[in-house]
Amino acid sequence: MHPYLFISLFLLFLMNNISKRKKRILELGFWVVFFIVKIESKCSNGCDLALASYYVAQGSNLTYISKIFSQTIPEILRYNPQIPGGDSIESGARINVPFSCLCLNDDFLGHTFKYETQVGDTYGKIASEVFANLTDEYWVQRVNWFEAEKIPDFVDINVTVNCTCGNKHVSKDYGLFATYPLRPDEDLQSISIESSVPMTLLERFNPRSNFSAGLGLVFVPAKANSSNFPSGHQFFRIQAPTVVNFPEFVPFLTMRKIKFPVQFLVLFLIANRIESRCKNECLALASYRMWVRSNITFVSQIFSTKIPQIQSYNPQITNPDTVAEGSRVNVPFSCSCEDRGFLSHRFVYNVSPENTYSWIAGTGFSNLTTVSMLRNYNTYNELSIPLGSEVNVVVNCSCGDKSVSKDYGLFITYPIQSGESLSSIANESGINENLLRDYNPSSSFSSGDLVFIPGRDQNGTFPPLKTRRKRVAEGSFLEENANELHLASDSNLGRRVESGHLIGGAPPGVTGITVDKSVEFTYEELSKATDEFSMANKIGQGGFGAVYYGELRGEKAAIKKMDMQASKEFLAELKVLTHVHHLNLVRLIGYCVEGSLFLVYEFIENGNLSQHLRGSLGRQPIPWATRVQIALDSARGLEYIHEHTVPVYIHRDIKSPNILIDQNYRAKVADFGLAKLTEVGSGSLQTRLVGTFGYMPPEYAQYGEVSPKVDVYAFGVVLFELISAKEAIVKANELSSESKGLVGLFEEVLSLSNPNEALCKLIDPRLGADYPIDSIRKIAQLAKACTHENPQLRPSMRSIVVALMTLSSSTEDWDVGSFFENQDLVQLMSGR
Length: 832
Description:
About 30% of the residues lie in helices and about 20% in strands.
């Protein structure tokens, strides 16, 4: 066992068996261990350009290389002036292939290419021969769902290549890097001579690499299409690159998808019962720098904020349409925990002619976001964004930090412009330089950095940091549930959440239950909002209660009324949705425990997936491209509860009626009444049988074994539903009363040597001929992998998200209007 891991486990044991005061001291010790092992920070942004040093094999040519890297030959030649032209290249030579370096899954820098398999391909051959050791056999297998011995011919698979954008702590003089696979005849000296980079610098950029090993990847500073090394990308605050060492910790990587040193952090999170990386929500300000032809009307539109609201924070503005170019305007917006675990707000921008990601980030949103962020949150190709389409623009924000100061509770997201510095910002804002550093410890306060500075409210004063008292639930609950919900009593990084007292006389066992970030409504409010729970307001009926429509405090809501006997389900849903916040999970607004048990959700106006697929209430058929997006949205929501929460949550009732569709046909996973939580690293659990037949995997239906793969199986059934619009259990034929599962129906077809003709008979007839059979076949293959009889052989939700993004990118030739035009979803790896 690694010595530091042993120390961490020992500290973990002590932390669970000592007083709170001593526990805080041990927490400090835990963090000391954490920093001793020098854990690499996960990436936050990528960069527009990296190079792959490709070793040319016998018989290879530029056409072949350009195809596997999805790059044009002229673009490759720009970075290889030594190539005279033409298609042939001398074997044994190296060429630099340009590609974009992205932050994949908020975890590491890389790029996922799409490769079409050929006869006789294996994961090892693809890694070593096709991609010239730029990746590893294990890594290729990890991001695909085909079994190693059964890779089909002529199917698209994912190939991920690591990259780096530099490290300002080593040197700011180098901003372009080549991912360089070492060969047996190379060493540190030869690479230094070839690259013209000092050996000491190469070692500092690659602190864990053995340059004499003759294998593995290193990152080497590279020249662009000139004789000079481009300087570091100041706009991106990239920390040390994370090199994935494949063989060392394969079992741990396979189970948790994280690198070895992060085990220390995981253990710390378990010890403190941390559910997610951020929970706050607050008002924030965006410092918008006015440009030529911009005005407050335009700013109001892109931020969806009324002009009087903007003026209230900017008393210097007298005429909203004549604001001086170069001046800054503070725009108020709501700041909350985004789906990937950080504070931000997602704006929707309507694309105008000639808009590019670069223009939207740099000019339209005044550097409040980055090109890399736009790529990560959108599906359109940067060079061909459809006119009139909607682009997601994510702007980071802050709600303050009581460990720095409680005197400041309103913060400005501030992009530093050329000519500004720490000193000038301190003078302008009236905030001490040391305090600004404390709030932005990783910033150098140079041009291109995004920092958070305390701001003034509408009265011109600095509002203090607010600490909200959390209200608690009451009702007839089982005593053991109180202990489960008490997990909310500790918040992020071990900071306590202040909790209030019980309202009224709560029964024994419920004392101490804490509800984070939810509103407690009165029965009177709910009754009034639903017209005394009238049938006219009833919009649904489930196994644990009825759902009513109502408007509460100015917001449309869906109110679930449950019997007191459904306390376990009530608590399960309350527990999940008060701790887990994600764009693709339905949002819980609040609750009530007077008379009955009530849960209040955001109202999703467009019904559920089942209703759309079956055409109920005269609904029009969903186009295929939209179905793919719905699948991706749902997968991201499940990936979040499986991969990015501690403890891990298992939904246990994934089905098309529990996937809600909003007005933009984006999906949200709902109904967490059967959700189960497990600690990190735990295997399957034995539990009572709940859920819906047709969606249950064999190990659950027969033995009651629960793991995240239960949700994976059910999600596979939903994929089959998206293809066929059939129920999970269907009649074998019209003349028979015998029923058959949708999984079995598709398995028969997909087992054929040429399934396309039979598959067409299963496709939803309401789609007509408006679908690409190749895409449907790939989705069906993914669904088959999800519904594998052996849970260990089913893909994880993270792999499914990657697969769906890659599959979506292949729809770029479809005639589907603005849904998926010229996509490059292979580059997007999302959802925490």
